[in-house]
Amino acid sequence: MKMFVITIFVITLAAFQIFSPERASMFALIAIICSFVIDRGMPICMFVCVDMMNIEVQDSIQAALLLLVGLVAISILVQESNKVPQYKKLIPSLFFFSLISFFSFIAGYHSTIMYFIRSLYVFIIAFAIGFHFCGKNIKILSFTFLSSGLAVMGIVMYQLLAGTMQMEFDAETGRLTYGEQVRTLSNALAFPIYYSFIEYMQAIEKKEVFKRSYWLVFVLLGTTLLLFTMSRGVIVAVGITLVYVFLSRIKNVRKSTLLLTTLFAALIIYYISTLELNTEYMFNRVESLTGRDEIWGYYLGRVFNGGPLSFLFGFGPGDIKRLSVGTSFADAYEHSLFVGFFVSFGIIGFAYLLWVLFKVGRPLWRSKSKYDFGMFLMTILLFVPFGAALKPLFYYLIGLCLALSMSDLVKPKTERNEKQISW
Q1: What sign for the dihedral angle of Cα 76, 357, 395, 416?
Q2: Which DSSP symbol is given to 134?
Q3: What sign does the dihedral 336-341-343-349 (CA atoms) show?
Q4: Domain-by-domain residue ranges, the chain?
Q5: Neighbours of 90 (CB within 10 A)
Q6: 122, 98, 117, 97: which is closest to 47 by C-alpha?
Q7: Confidence label for 347 from pLDDT (cuts 50, 70 and 90)
Q8: Where are the alpha helices (DSSP H) in 163-306?
């Protein structure tokens, strides 16, 4: 029933996005309100779909959605935080981050109350996803990400066939570049490609010919569309993760060998993803990172040279573009979620983020299923060269990883010894 509702919601939302995008946000708001009748986790699933599909939401509707989904998330944390004793300490840590965010908000001259609320919201949602969708509910959450990603594939295919996307030829590099609307959808393609690859690998292990062919089609389709988006960072992140997962299935492979082989594969994938024949251009320090090294250096320099208060608490959650006024890249943003987080919340906030990622990633690394850790690895790699400090999709994916890490803990002891993939 829940998966059927999500399917209908995603298909309808995709239709609005293609044919009447100005009405998509209003439909999403009405659907999310109605979904309270089915289950309290449904509003979160639907809001994840809205963000993954890059739906443009008006400010008033966005505020209403934040209020509704935020209240649902808080109720989930209050009622379900006792499921796993090992994760009780994560709840007080939210209060600690609230203090960090508040001090950053007070110290930062480019912060606003809306960004302060949103900084708390993304963490609360991530934790609520982890607590509510662990165990058997992980299938519903995974289906939400998968259906949203497949809808993104459909939107990209429609734009390709209809010719509605912007296409330009760069004579200097010899590359075809597409409009930002398509490029921003590239992150959403990562999950369905990864999920389809996992199902494909499992079908091979179980010798299921039909399922193997079925999921291989989705792997090839998603990969093709991802190449069309020309998003080099996402291509590299997905490629590294798939290589890691594939190699991890080989018996008697040491972790050190696995990591070194994955690193070597990453260099090859990066070389191929540039799609350049001009070697001098490809290995140019600035151009190969599309100017990110200069941008990162500028923003980090502002933190280190801004005094003790800026170093400890950053410049506050907000529009980081205001810090670049008067520079040659005044219209740029941080181009890295981790750099943006450090600039916004300082060294204390950045240390908190690393602690949360450690608490989420360690159980996945120790798990017998390398598929779960692969999901965590891909999430980190996706947002090293992309995203702003409060990019919702990153925290939703971290919530998924948290649910994966908790799924083994909420099972009875008799089921914990043979952990299978938690999709």
Answers
A1: negative
A2: S
A3: negative
A4: 2-415
A5: 21
A6: 122
A7: very high
A8: 180-183, 186-205, 209-229, 232-248, 255-273, 279-282, 292-304
Q: Which positions ≥6 away from 173 have C-beta within 8 Å?
A: 276, 278, 281
Residue tagged 């259906």 (tokens)? 147
- The span from the CA of 180 to the CA of 282, in Å, is 22
Could you tell me whether strands 175-178 and 167-170 are parallel, antiparallel, or unpaired per DSSP bridges?
Answer: antiparallel
Please state the pTM of the whole predicted model.
0.82
Q: Rounded to a whole number, what is the largest CA-CA distance in the chain? A: 62
Kindly give the interhelix angle for 59-80 and 24-34, rounded to the nearest 10 degrees: 30
3 state SS of 265: helix
Asked if 296 and 334 touch (Cβ cutoff 8 Å), the reply is yes
User: Is there a contact between 32 and 65 (Cβ–Cβ < 8 Å)?
Assistant: yes
Distance CA 374, CA 380 (A): 10
d(CA 72, CA 232) in angstroms, rounded, equals 36
Three-state secondary-structure class, residue 15: helix
Asked if residue 117 lies in contact with residue 63, where contact means CB atoms within 8 angstroms, the answer is no
Residue 22, both tokens: 């100005």
Residue given tokens 């949360």 in the structure block: 356
Q: What is the pLDDT of residues 274-296, one digit of tens each?
A: 544 344 433 443 444 666 777 88
Q: Read off the tokens for 342.
A: 């450090």
Strands (DSSP E) along 171-290, which ranges?
175-178
The answer to whether residues 122 and 390 touch, using CB atoms and an 8 Å cutoff, is yes
- pLDDT at residue 353 in the model: 92
Could you tell me the two tokens for 121?
């919201």
Long-range contacts of 200-204 (CB under 8 A, 24+ apart): 201/245, 201/246, 201/249, 202/421
